[in-house]
Amino acid sequence: NELVEVFSSLDGQERLYLDDIYYGGGTVEKDISSKELAEQVKRRFPDVHYMGDRKSIVQDIVKKAQSGDLVLVMGARDVNQICKKILESLKSD
User: What is the pLDDT of residues 67-81, one digit of tens each?
Assistant: First the structure.
């Protein structure tokens, strides 16, 4: 619920992409998916995207990014890999 609240407070100039949730094991409950989270956020913030794979996310960011935009990537696991792909793709465009 806290993530829905925070993501729903984004303004109209922002775009939100959600990758699959990384579950690191332990006793974490797997009671929501990124797709479900995106559906809940979309009720109050329409520019949220769940695409199911990182390649699609990178392609969409690169396609829509304009000079002066800030791309902020947050996450766990190997999130740095998506950062490299976005940066390389933006540099080649």
Answer: 899 999 988 778 888
One-letter amino acid of 39: E
Spatial contact of 61 and 73, defined as CB atoms under 8 Å apart:
no
Q: What is the 3-state secondary structure (H, E, C) of the chain?
A: CHHHHHHHCCCCCCCEEECCCCCCCCCCCCCCCHHHHHHHHHCCCCCEEECCCHHHHHHHHHHHCCCCCCCCCCCCCCHHHHHHHHHHHHHHC
Q: Locate tokens 């094991």: which residue?
A: 25
